[in-house]
From TrEMBL:
This is GTP-binding protein lepa. The lineage of its organism: Eukaryota, Fungi, Dikarya, Basidiomycota, Pucciniomycotina. CDD domains: EF4_II, lepA_C. It catalyses: GTP + H2O = GDP + phosphate + H(+). Keywords: GTP-binding, Hydrolase, Membrane, Mitochondrion, Mitochondrion inner membrane, Nucleotide-binding, Protein biosynthesis. GO terms for molecular function: GTP binding; GTPase activity; mitochondrial ribosome binding. It comes from Rhodotorula diobovata.
């Protein structure tokens, strides 16, 4: 029974609790990659093998895993049998939750890692929730046990996790992914506790063999072979030469090559342990089938044999973009180059939506949609790292739903499309997306967190103690490490957390609070559009949609910031923030005095010349855009938007 020797599993955890390190260690222990020398004499070697699965540069720099990646390994268990373990490494950040969901669809179980120093965190709770919703087997493990001292903290975390999983503390594994200590027990637990994929139904008289059905759960583009699809085989098998069909597009393809990730792509025909020429039921592997156009690749698609059509598998929800922003080249002449860079980057990150847009101030650009603000940051950084593109990113906006008097509905992703007060008279309902936030923090920060959430228009839903930490604290109240911790659930507008919420939460809790969220339905909201005017002219790239209770404060802040970055001109510059014809804030920049050196004392000739030369060089460096007679260096614009 081939399928009984297969295990499909994912590692889930809060950010930085050690998933990637554990995945690397498992790849080494199973001989999938050569072992890193964790000895003191060869530190470079260790650095080289660090986090094989985190391949993108941004991931390395930021230390986060952005794209889920998989790898197949072969493990000889204590029962003497060899098992094929399909590991799906998942990204750890909240914006990439959809990727976590994808990997769960292809697994029967998960390893839930918790850092021994930090304990259960917000994301531990949200990812566990997803795994339980899918009835997956959960193996709990406390990582970084090498850091555990004798203060009872490690045991407290262990109890916290066993409480959460409603299991015996003895079932929780203690490991150190870094040193490799205990990692063998993780491999054993995967084999012993996680069930194999479900067996094939017995063959009937009409069908000799089960027809092939495979779920596409990841894909990327290779310039030689076209689209490479990562497929989890739910039924039947697929091999080279088979003719397959996509359920979504109806296009037919011939399988040119297929294999497993080990963790690099290895053709199945060449893999010594694969023991088969086909990707069989329960396996996860890559398929190249001459799909040349990346637009034909859909995550969640089902492939089936062309000769044996089957209904598509239950798929995941298509990704919805929740944060939109305009992206413009910093260099006013750089549109074509930027267009090509965005085209190529969206091929590798299919969750970004892109449409052209233009601004009277910034010229030609794009309106891009992202899963969240971190996703947006990562995309911007990749544009810079991989294509050398410096861009201006306008203020992000969440989708806003408008219902008009005549019953029509419209979703807006650009602040410039939001009606002015006159236009709003025709709108009967304005709605914005909400989230359900989970915050875990030591009890002492509760007050500050409540204030933060309230000032972000949050409504409390519940407030509970993480059980065992509260219990332990009563017995060892003196130890600061064991202070009781609370879980707070809040309903918050998505728009209020996409800019500064995370950093504010970290700073008010000295870094101890953790945060995660799930989408919640849209709710009614009193929003309005705020315009920024420079000498009476609207700067479209700076207009925003804000809640009426916050618009006054925002207007003042924006006007002040602009005053700081716009250099003096020959003419007076007046900056205003306004809703319709109501002016919220006004700032003025006085014109130059004709002689720029007049203000310097002493009439020192050399000093005067130096000043003039400096000014000239400065001018040459700036790339400018203008509104009427006013010139604004794009850099200044970049600075004001960058600081939002
Ligand atoms: P994301 O991909 O960002 O979600 O993080 P991750 O969960 O994959 O964590 P990662 O493996 O990148 O580990 C985070 C940090 O913890 C790294 O600096 C690791 O070296 C360190 N780390 C991981 N496991 C251990 C461990 O067992 N002991 C110690 N001391 N450090 C560890």
């Amino acid at each position: 029974r081939q399928h009984e020797k297969i295990r499909n599993f994912a590692c889930i955890a809060h950010v930085d609790h050690g998933k990637s390190t554990l995945c690397d260690r498992m790849l080494e222990m199973t001989g999938t990659i050569p072992p890193a020398a964790i000895s003191r004499d060869q530190p470079e070697q260790e650095a080289k093998n660090e986090q094989v699965l985190d391949t993108l540069k941004v991931e390395r720099e930021r230390g986060i895993t952005v794209r889920a990646q998989s790898a197949t390994m072969f493990h000889r268990h204590t029962d003497g049998q060899e098992y094929m373990l399909n590991l799906i490494d998942t990204p750890g950040h909240v914006d990439f939750a959809s990727e976590v969901l994808r990997s769960l669809l292809a697994s029967q179980g998960v390893i839930l890692l918790v850092d021994a120093a930090q304990g259960v965190q917000a994301q531990t709770l949200t990812v566990l929730d997803e795994a339980l919703k899918r009835n997956l087997t959960v193996v709990g493990a406390v990582n970084k046990w090498d850091l555990v001292k004798d203060d009872g903290r490690g045991e407290a975390v262990l109890n916290e996790l066993s409480d959460l999983l409603a299991c015996d503390p003895g079932e929780i594994l203690r490991i150190s992914a870094k040193t490799g200590w205990g990692v063998e027990s993780v491999l054993d637990a995967v084999v012993e506790r996680i069930p194999p994929p479900p067996p094939a139904p017995p063959a009937t008289a009409t069908t000799d063999k089960e027809p092939f059905r495979g779920l596409v759960f990841d894909s990327w583009y290779d310039s030689f072979r076209g689209v490479v699809s990562l497929v989890s085989v739910f039924e039947g098998e697929v091999k080279k030469g088979d003719s397959i069909t996509s359920s979504i597009t109806g296009n037919d393809y011939t399988v040119l090559d297929l294999g497993i990730l080990s963790p690099r792509e290895v053709s199945i025909a060449e893999h010594p342990d694969a023991n088969s020429r086909a990707l069989r039921k329960g396996m996860a592997g890559w398929v190249v089938c001459g799909m040349k156009n990346p637009k034909d690749a859909f995550l969640g698609d089902t492939f089936h044999l062309t000769s044996r059509p089957t209904p598509p598998l239950e798929s995941f929800k298509p990704l919805k973009s929740m944060v939109f922003a305009g992206i413009y080249p910093l260099d006013p002449g750089g549109f074509t180059k930027l267009e090509e860079a965005i085209r190529r980057l969206t091929l590798t990150d299919r969750s970004v939506t892109s449409n052209r847009e233009s601004s009277t101030f910034l010229g030609q650009g794009f309106r891009l949609g992202f899963n969240g603000s971190l996703h947006m940051d990562v995309f911007r950084q990749r544009l810079e790292d991989e294509f050398g593109e410096e861009v201006i990113v306008t203020r992000p906006l969440v989708p806003v739903k408008l219902t008009f008097k005549d019953g029509t509905e419209r979703t807006i992703d650009n602040p410039a499309d939001f009606p002015d007060p006159g236009g709003l008279l025709k709108v009967v309902r304005v709605q914005e997306p909400m989230i359900r936030a989970t915050i875990v923090a030591p009890d002492e920060y509760t007050g500050a967190i409540i204030n933060l959430c309230t000032s972000h228009r949050g409504v409390p839903l519940s407030h509970t103690y993480l059980s065992s930490s509260a219990a332990t604290s009563s017995s060892t109240a003196s130890s600061t490490a064991l202070k009781p911790r609370v879980t707070m659930l809040y309903s918050l507008p998505l728009s209020s957390i996409i800019t500064s919420f995370h950093s504010a939460l970290k700073s008010i809790s000295s870094g101890f609070a953790s945060f995660d969220y799930e989408e919640a339905p849209y709710e009614d909201s009193d929003l309005c559009r705020m315009n920024i005017l420079v000498n009476g002219q609207k700067v479209d790239a700076l207009c925003t949609v804000a809640h009426r209770s916050e618009v006054q404060k925002e207007g003042r802040e924006w006007a002040k910031r602009l005053r700081e970055v716009i250099p003096r001109q020959q003419h007076e510059v007046v900056i205003q923030a306004a809703v319709g014809s109501t002016i919220l804030a006004r700032e003025r920049i006085a014109p130059f005095r004709k002689d720029v050196t007049a203000g310097l004392y002493g009439g020192h000739y050399e000093r005067k010349m130096k000043h003039l030369a400096k000014q000239k060089a400065g001018k040459a460096r700036l790339k400018e855009r203008s509104i009427g007679r006013i010139t604004i260096p794009t850099e200044a614009f970049h600075a004001v938007l960058g600081g939002q």
